[in-house]
Amino acid sequence: MVRERIEELRRQLELHNFKYYVENAPEISDFEFDAMMRELQELERAHPEFADPNSPSVRVGSDLTAEFQTVKHRYAMLSLGNTYSLDELHEFIARIERETGPTDYVCELKFDGTAISLTYEHGRLLRAVTRGDGVQGDDVTANVRTVRTVPLRLRGTGWPDYFEIRGEILMPYASFDRLNAEREANGEQLFANPRNAAAGTLKQQSSAVVAKRGLDCTLYQLAGDDLPFTTHWESLEKAREWGFKVSDAARICRSAAEIDAFIEHWDTARRELPFPTDGVVIKVDDFAVRRQLGFTAKAPKWAVAYKFKAEQAMTRLDSVSFQVGRTGAVTPVANLEPVLLAGTTVRRATLHNAEQMALLDIRPGDMVYVEKGGEIIPKIIGVDLSQRPADSRPFEYITVCPECGTPLVRYEGEAKHYCPNQGGCRPQIIGRIIHFIRRKALDIEGLGEETVELLYENGLVRNVADLYDLRAEQLAPLPRLGEKSADNIIRSIERSKQVPFQRVLFGLGIRFVGETTAKYLAEHFRSLDAVMKATREELVEADEVGGRIADAIIEYFAEDENLQIIRRLRDAGVQFEAEARELASENLAGRTFVVSGKFSRSRDEMKELIELHGGKNLAAVSGNVDYIVAGENMGPAKLKKAEKLGVKIISEEEFFAMIEGGGPVEKAAQQELF
Ligand code: IVH
Q1: Using a 6 Å cutoff on CB, does residue 110 contact ligand 1?
Q2: What is the spatial distance between Cα 642 and Cα 637, in angstroms, rounded to a whole number?
Q3: Which residues catalyse the reaction (predicted)?
Q4: Distance 110 CA to ligand 1 centre (A)
Q5: What is the pLDDT of residue 64?
């Protein structure tokens, strides 16, 4: 019964996933889709024995740590020759046609992401591997499975039993903007462009994080022995039928003039695309002609990339100003004489940090080159020294905070300067409050950035705990507020006391503790007290928490001012404990467990399963423990201790059987079950 339902849900979800993400023609509402997905996830969670690595639920990822294995490509992943010049491109075509006579080309967009090779066996996704050095790459299958446009099972018929398909993992601009906004709010380093963000995301350790980043995948090349096609065009059409996302920008071009027209069109039209491109790829269509042309050591002789020029402009650097963020990080910003670049007027550009500025020897008054390449924020790529004024002096970076005058500091391993005056520096104080009230944190509606500034100017708030002392009659007389808004604000502050613990933890604004880390910390420790008491060793046991994050957490709770704020928030009634879980069964009720070693899922997931079925987790082996669930590589010391104390040791399979049945099954019976 359960198994059939799981299968049916998987089939339905796969179909609607394809309709939504690949065909852009959804047939059911998001609500219905989410409800089915939730049902599937719940069934799979409570029935781990029906797990399938290609279930549509993997699209949401897991927090299993992926240690990437290096895999040799069966067919090398070559690069492409490239050119910025139409003359060179015409020469390339002339050379081909001297050798083979007139032939057809397929022109495609050159997608600006990171290359991926997908292997399918019997119509199911077997592996996804990065380009690496072209000969071998990293196995990133778990992460790629979360990308909605990658089919896990193929549609239609006629696919070879074994083949590879290559393409690009892309981060659309919308996902990129969202990701960077989030990172900025969390005081994390921004990704310079969608390409870096896509590549960085693929190498994430947690596929649950990958799942949320909104990656996309476009395919453009098949590889295999005896592919059943004679032309590239045909292979693209088939790939589309099998459920792959294949760009519909591709065209067959029969002459240099047609290729030129394709390039000319996309050099401007690409600005309207929702994802980044950096050129056009021109490929010989006919496989027989391709074979005739062959390869150089590095690249095929039958294809070339024509790259679009990044648009540049020259303008004057008027002055440099400095922004101080919520975490105290200082960013230098170039104020430019306005200049038109790639369709928009550019007035400001980031200068990154002191080192970058020194490297380019940038000085106010200089004529500078501004470029808007793949990057969203324009950058200064150089200085025209011939136009430098005679009285110009090297730029001296600031040594004190432009907002509060405190001497700036540099932390080891960080390029930026920081203002350490957390408690007294205006943009940091206001920034922290704004972070706290964000939708993803305490979600205090009616309180925007301007209102927070207003409250600060009027001496009503100095930290987030002050919000909970506000009274409507203090707010009503302030400009732009009035009684109605004042009441709304107070009501929404009141409501924020119900916001779950994980969002409160995120809202505190501990350095490096973003939304996801806060969620993992809350799941692992379940209360603020437990997080505060945890040692560095205990902190890094939570998923996604490394030494750097653990140190930042310890540092945060070592500050008296923070402890006071926490005490006041607690008194106000803000949630400092995770909600109790709804049980999936009571099959483990009254029993205590220690999980140790490696399992087919992460340890935190195993612990969650224990609680989900009514059991209790204990941290260390003692006489109070009923069972040790032993995975691979369980420490020998623990094993010895358990044996000495007479604690029962069970395998992962026996554990799953307990979840199903109520008691650990005997070894013989278990053979039949699995
Ligand atoms: S074909 C042997 N087609 O560009 C030919 N590549 O500079 C293999 N790329 O590594 C590549 N869009 O990551 C091809 N439509 C497209 C492409 C494309 C982007 C990337 C790909 C490749 C790099 C070569």
Answers
A1: yes
A2: 9
A3: 110 (n6-amp-lysine intermediate)
A4: 6
A5: 52
